[in-house]
Amino acid sequence: QVQLVESGGGLVQAEGSLRLSCLASGRTANYYTVGWFRQAPGKEREFVATISGSGQRMVVADDMKGRFAISKDTAKSTVFLQMNNLKPEDTAVYYCAASYEFSDSAARYAYWGQGAQVTVSS
């Protein structure tokens, strides 16, 4: 099993930046694919980005490419989501999740963090 804790959320003005962190704990934490998803009020959960356990494979959702980037510090068992040029429509609760598979489907992720609120003001 793996436990996930997000941090780094907050309030930022449009065009600003935030970096979210997801600390994974557990004996096999670094073997899991870790993804980021977000959910805005009244909307379905949406895929943002994912990175393999080795850190060699990563995918960012098409409409976030160029603004968002995912990375991993294996020594610290931490996955980061760097978000630049933020827009009000990026406002959502951001979740990190862990999966045995490399996937952009939330249904493939068995373990979830508690979520971090990101609010972008115009």
Would you kindly provide a brief summary of this structure?
With 122 residues, the chain is mostly beta strands. The chain has no helices and 11 strands.
Give a structural overview.
This protein is an all-beta fold and 122 residues long. The chain is built from no helices and 11 strands. Strand 4 (33-39) and strand 5 (46-51) form a beta hairpin. The mean pLDDT is 96.
Give the helix/strand layout.
Elements: E1 3-7, E2 10-13, E3 18-25, E4 33-39, E5 46-51, E6 58-60, E7 68-73, E8 78-83, E9 92-99, E10 111-112, E11 116-121
Parallel strand pairs: 2-11
Antiparallel strand pairs: 1-3, 3-8, 4-5, 4-9, 5-6, 7-8, 9-10, 9-11
